Amino acid sequence: MSAGSMTVLAPTDAELLQAQADLWRHSLYYLTSMAFKCAVELGIPTAIHNLGGAASVEDLVTALSLPQNKLPFLRRVMRLLVTSGIFASDSRAHEETYRLKPLSWLLVEGVDAEDHTNQKYFVLSTVSKHYVEAALSLADWFKKDLAPPLPSPFEELHGVPLLHPEKTPLLDNDLHNTVLEGVAAHDNLAIGTIMRECHDLFRGVKSLTDCCGGDGTTARAIVKAHPDIKCTVLDLPDVIKNAPADGVINYVGGDMFKSVPPSHAVLLKLVLLHWSDDDCVKILEQCRKAIPSREEGGKVIIIEIVLGPSLGPVMFEAQLLMDMLMMVNTRGRQRDENDWREIFMKAGFSDYKIVKKLGARGVIEVYP
Ligand SMILES: C[S@@+](CC[C@H](N)C(=O)[O-])C[C@H]1O[C@@H](n2cnc3c(N)ncnc32)[C@H](O)[C@@H]1O
Q: Cβ–Cβ contacts within 10 Å for residue 92, how many?
């Protein structure tokens, strides 16, 4: 077949004009992220909340002490953020007012509600200069013939890995702290939902190790819902030394690559996405050694994204963007069911079951 006969048919006039609009959208989506960052830095969600849940641009300019001549510019930013689904607007009244949506509610500071975890630092880390520069270097990274284990574009560009307790602060201490706060906010979001949705998951479990359980926030929520479970948190010694001595959770400082405290079940919540497949196999091997046989109820519980289009295009896009986030900035990744199955089998497990969907994530039980 000649090259000429393989040429795509010329688009129609309507298709061409649509293609140009799509070209604008895909080239300029970064401006949505930057407008979003701007709204978070200005504190617009908190201002709307403090103004009773609805505010005009005039109200916002006054509340935020912005110069009056910025008013028409703020209106344009808000118009984009409404169209992007971040705020709601009401134009029935004489002047347009803006309201919070669930997403912008997550960015209000000082809300005292059980299910509220302020996501400000997640936003500020993901749109930080260092992350954006790493993403800008992606094509250069692809062209470089780097020796394995492959550094992420972030590590290759900035010379240090992300989230390394000693090395990342040498690059930028503020970035390191912002990322730590962002990860904690991200990981603690929806713990109440997980407990409500996954009540049965912990039924019959006598003891549980929360592997990489940090300061014990998840473990405390589990014990609150299931007071009979004996809960242990494993994390690095430097993290455990700052954990609250609550007398309920047993905190163990250690290294999951060397051993995991034995228990009926091991929980890995939002851990494996940070690690390569080879490292995941090593971690899972230690988890397998820590639990009894399947007949005795032994299992590893994993709460993570399971990539796939079944939840619809918006959720799938969100999952794929989270995979890009990991690819650009870490050596980790998000995984589809085949990827998960492969690492479970390599780590010596016999079977697994995706027991629940939790938004963009899945809950997987893995059996020895
Ligand atoms: C992304 S957080 C885990 C999130 C947590 N499971 C949650 O759902 O809130 C990663 C945690 O892994 C811990 N960690 C990293 N390397 C570790 C290791 N080798 N052994 C034990 N913990 C480790 C870090 O200190 C950090 O607290």
A: 7
Cα separations (Å) of 130 from 163, 171, 210, 233? 13, 10, 31, 32
Checking 350-353 for CB contacts under 8 A at 24+ apart, the result is 350/294, 351/294
For the Cβ of 234 lying below 6 angstroms from any atom of ligand 1, the answer is yes
If you compute the radius of gyration of the chain from its CA atoms, what whole number of angstroms results? 23
pLDDT digits (tens, 9 = 90+) for 310-322: 999 999 999 999 9
Task: Give the tens place of pLDDT for each residue, 198-231.
Answer: 888 998 999 999 999 999 999 999 999 999 999 9
- Report how far residue 148's alpha carbon sits from residue 115's, in angstroms, rounded to the nearest whole number: 42
Q: How far from the centroid of its chain's Cα atoms is residue 162's Cα?
A: 15
**Ligand 1 test: best mutation among 191, 235, 269, 272, most atoms within 8 Å of CB?**
235
ipTM of the predicted structure? 0.99
**CB of 362 closer than 6 angstroms to any ligand 1 atom:** no
Residue 88 CB: number of other CB atoms within 10 A?
14
Distance of alpha carbon 88 from alpha carbon 103, whole angstroms = 10
